Recover the amino acids of this structure.
């Protein structure tokens, strides 16, 4: 495993902000009156990736593939079962988030924030915007009183909301505006890393574009690093520098966005790309329709988890689980046949 | 295209919800038609009234919503003449009692609907089979045995594996994609001539979405029915629709065939919408062009053209005065915008 870990280490001059090594999250399946553990759902299974400072890494996959769990484990919103989450903190020291005690974690949390998918359920309806956006400043002792109000006003302005709205409650705002509130709250403590969990999925098309532009502007302004979790491949292509693809708890491919979209090396990525509806009636759609369903992570298939649905599967795929390897510089894939197959990317 | 081939004509339809806070004009004068056997895309953002169109056609609007004006002419197939020609009977669905035997005979049998969230639209306490059998027996006099066999056949047609076993399973035992297949099987069990699909793939993953869209297109070919695809996803529209109706705040903004709509959109709203979607394969880390502002509050609708406060081509004194009529641009195309005429001469 150590070999694999080193293989996903970057060789770039830009510092690595976050390096996730062999991250696992197993949820026990309990049965019977004694709640005996009869098995585990491997929601996140030995996931390795890194994010460079200032870049946006996309994490894509279908529902249930573990992308949200991965994001939450990084912030320790969910306790990871094992693995390392190395984070470069403010003082330029590397710290393993997975091993921090509660107090140190609390201190580090201001450097890592999250934007949630549903702007309706992620804001406390009984709090005003001042309380919602100001909370990270209060708990981290960054501001209080008059200064707090000034900072909240400034944050609201930066996300395109009027500071006068500070005393209002979330119900007075539309979905797009609420998402801006969520973004302002995430940015309040001036984090370095923001985990965006499907930040635009609940928004309408016209508001989605505004929100994506806002996220890009804020990234430039505050030198933010994003982990952008989404199932929408067109949004991911638009906003991400690099993309990692997950399938049933495992990372199957990771590469620079353009490379991944034009020359995918994993059959699952190929199928995923071909399934995206193209917004052009002239492109004759030629979907690779995957047979069957995403397997239950509680009882995954043997060997490569994708083999029952893979049209290139060979005997080896059924028995041996592939490891994530760097096949081309910066292009990681976990497929036995990655070197011999020539797969189709997105038509340009 | 002559009128013979129309199946639904919607004329100046208005569906309002009168609430204490004011009147929500969910549909405010929509006019378009649906042809027999075509796939019509109905697109728009949330709150534009696209789902309400389907609910108005089937007369299943939740109270206090009401059709206050307009017509929904349904060209009902009433058999064949001796010469083999269609005999049509035109009825106005907007006028008949939603609980009348006639409406109930149409709903589900001649016009069927599938919904966005199959978990909430299937009953959790009955098996899939029971629910399909109920739909079949409601409309046709068949024995229990026959109905069950038909239900199994219907499940097989929608690509359900082991339909003999699945027929006795409950919705919670099926995955999202399988539930949507069961919904489609139920909707098609009476071979409707029109299927209203309200965001049928929005809750599904892309690979499952591709499966369901493929299935719907195959079934359309087999049964020859028309489909109204209601969605906010322009990608889905580009893949399957032949003609598209773009709606904004309860009104029709533009009607066009799918190629013209994507290559040469005319209404500023359609133009803005198309520019604001990131396209796969058009790798460009440029800024997206977004539509400025938000969809207005339903209680506080702008005067004149509903899009004018967000419109880049806003003409003061014209767009904010009166409503633009839907004008024909020749061929299939209609647009409701003063840029293409229709303004009163002052």
């Amino acid at each position: 495993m150590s070999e694999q870990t080193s293989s996903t280490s970057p060789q770039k001059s830009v510092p690595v902000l976050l390096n996730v090594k062999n991250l696992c999250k197993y949820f026990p399946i309990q049965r019977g009156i004694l709640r005996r553990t009869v098995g585990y759902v491997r929601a996140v299974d030995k996931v390795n990736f890194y994010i460079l400072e200032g870049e946006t890494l996309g994490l894509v996959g279908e529902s249930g593939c573990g992308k949200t769990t991965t994001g939450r484990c990084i912030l320790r919103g969910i306790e990871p079962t094992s693995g390392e989450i190395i984070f470069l903190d403010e003082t330029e020291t590397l710290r393993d988030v997975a091993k921090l005690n509660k107090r140190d974690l609390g201190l580090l949390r201001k450097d890592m924030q999250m934007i949630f998918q549903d702007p309706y359920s992620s804001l406390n309806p009984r709090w005003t915007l001042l309380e919602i956006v100001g909370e990270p400043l209060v708990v981290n002792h960054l501001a209080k009183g008059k200064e707090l109000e000034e900072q909240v006003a400034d944050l609201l302005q930066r996300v395109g909301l009027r500071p006068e709205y500070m005393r209002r409650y979330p119900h007075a705002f539309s979905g797009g505006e609420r998402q801006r509130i969520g973004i302002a709250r995430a940015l309040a403590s001036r984090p370095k890393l923001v985990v965006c969990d499907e930040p635009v999925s609940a928004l309408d098309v016209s508001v989605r574009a505004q929100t994506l532009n806002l996220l890009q502007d804020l990234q430039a302004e505050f030198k933010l690093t994003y982990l952008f979790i989404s199932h929408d491949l067109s949004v991911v292509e638009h906003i991400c520098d690099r993309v990692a693809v997950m399938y049933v708890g495992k990372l199957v491919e990771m590469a620079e966005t353009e490379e991944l979209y034009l020359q995918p090396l994993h059959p699952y990525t190929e199928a995923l790309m071909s399934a995206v509806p193209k917004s052009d009636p002239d492109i004759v759609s030629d979907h690779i329709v995957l047979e069957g369903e995403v397997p239950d992570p509680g009882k995954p298939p043997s060997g490569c988890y994708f083999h029952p649905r893979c049209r290139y599967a060979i005997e080896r795929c059924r028995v041996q689980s592939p490891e994530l390897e760097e096949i081309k510089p910066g292009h990681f894939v976990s497929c036995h046949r990655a070197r011999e197959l020539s797969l189709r990317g997105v038509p340009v | 295209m002559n009128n013979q081939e129309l199946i639904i004509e919607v004329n100046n339809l208005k569906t309002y919800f009168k609430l204490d806070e004011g009147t929500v004009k969910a549909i405010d004068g929509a006019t378009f038609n649906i042809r027999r056997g075509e796939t019509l895309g109905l697109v728009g953002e949330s709150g534009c009234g696209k789902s309400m169109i389907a609910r108005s056609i089937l007369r299943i609007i939740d109270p206090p919503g009401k059709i206050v004006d307009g017509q929904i002419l349904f060209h009902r197939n009433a058999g064949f003449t001796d010469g083999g020609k269609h005999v049509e009977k035109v009825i106005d669905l907007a006028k008949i009692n939603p609980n009348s035997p006639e409406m109930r005979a149409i709903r589900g049998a001649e016009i069927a609907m599938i919904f966005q969230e199959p978990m909430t639209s299937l009953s959790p306490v009955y098996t899939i089979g029971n629910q399909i059998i109920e739909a079949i027996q409601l409309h046709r006099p068949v024995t229990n045995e026959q109905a069950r066999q038909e239900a199994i056949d219907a499940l097989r047609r929608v690509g359900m594996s082991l339909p003999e076993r699945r027929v006795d399973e409950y919705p919670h035992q099926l995955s999202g994609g399988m539930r949507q297949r069961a919904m489609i099987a139920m909707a098609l069990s009476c071979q409707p001539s029109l299927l209203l699909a309200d965001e049928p793939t929005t809750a599904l993953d892309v690979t499952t979405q591709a499966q369901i869209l493929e299935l719907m297109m195959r079934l359309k070919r087999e049964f020859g029915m028309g489909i109204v695809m209601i969605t906010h996803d322009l990608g889905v529209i580009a893949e399957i629709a032949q003609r598209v109706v773009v709606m904004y705040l309860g009104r029709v903004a533009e009607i066009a065939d799918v190629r013209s709509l994507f290559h040469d959109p005319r209404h500023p709203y359609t133009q803005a919408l198309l520019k604001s979607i990131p396209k796969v394969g058009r790798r460009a880390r440029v800024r997206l062009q977004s539509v400025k502002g938000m969809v207005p509050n339903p209680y506080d609708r702008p005067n004149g053209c509903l899009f004018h406060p967000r419109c880049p081509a806003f003409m003061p004194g014209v767009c904010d005065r009166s409503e633009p009529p839907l004008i024909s641009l020749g061929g299939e195309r209609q647009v409701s915008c003063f840029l293409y005429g229709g303004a009163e001469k002052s």
Observations:
- The longest strand of chain A covers residues 36-52.
- The domain at 2-240 of chain A is CATH 3.40.50.300 (Rossmann fold).
- Chain A touches chain B through 48 residues (CB under 8 Å).
